[in-house]
Amino acid sequence: MATPEEAKLHQFLQWLELNRAELRGCRIKYSESSKGFGIFSSNHASDGILLVVPLDLAITPMSVLQDPLLGPECRAMFEEGEVDDRLLITLFLTVEHLRENSSWKPYFDMLPTTFGNPLWFSEDELLELKGTTLYRAAQLQKKTLQSLFDEKVKRLATKLLTLDGHPERDVKFEDFLWANSIFWSRALNIPFPRCYIFPMDSEGQDSDISSKIVNSATQTNGCGGLSNGESAKVPEYDALQDKVASAASISQGEIVWVEGLVPGIDFCNHDFKAAATWEVDGTGATTGVPFSMYLLSAGENPSLIEKEISISYGNKGNEELLYLYGFVMNDNPDDYLMVIYLTNN
């Protein structure tokens, strides 16, 4: 009989296949309790491409606004200034995680339910950090998130759940805290071709809301995506032809960096010596899948079978790793003392 982890993984792999993700030289499996699921090599990929995920599967501000059920209301919230791009994604994660019939359920079921970052510490555990910059930062962060939830998120999330026919669903602070931790521990700064993520209007101009998100996205460096709605399927290949033609001729100045989650890719754990890197293939020339993100082996030699495939989360000290991701590394070569300048504004 399958274990709960095996059952979740089976459903998730079917979901990835439905959405045209391709595990070419790797497999996803449960790693350990402290890491959850991870990505492991399964066979030698001659071109080094281990995993390919269509960017239609990415959760980004624009994909949220295009969601058939929640998109129109989220768009109104964004235009009225009630949410910015990051809060938009966090709000979407909060609501979709609570929806029983969410098309994202196979993905959400694979994600951790608790975290090791200080936001999830008990009072006694938090006191262990007393005397460090992290202690005060964690206290203020949780206070800020609690205020944001009480003053805005609970109301907005309840409003969105009403669209799903569940106005009685009680949205708790822990639901928002979960979504916030998912975003900050798994989001990537993704280089999208502008022509792909921001469609033009009939006069060849960006829509006003697209321009707002462009301005927001290009001003942030980020940390470190399902066709939205009920179908959970990516667009047919024919619908990508014009986008591919445009992407083939774009310049670096037409790349827009947008924060988002890419299911599958985000199961790579961190290591100092990364076994892989991720790249974006705009035209499909590298992977055969237009507008996709792929995991590329960083080694010259074939990967060992069943070796965990890690990526680097960046040169981060242990305070930063604990603050963002909830873990620390022994003998961290990038460890340093983090000094945080905090204001009450």
TrEMBL record:
Gene3D superfamilies the UniProt entry points to: set domain protein methyltransferase, domain 1
Transmembrane spans: none
Database matches in PANTHER family: SET DOMAIN-CONTAINING PROTEIN, UNCHARACTERIZED PUTATIVE METHYLTRANSFERASE
Official protein name in the record: SET domain-containing protein
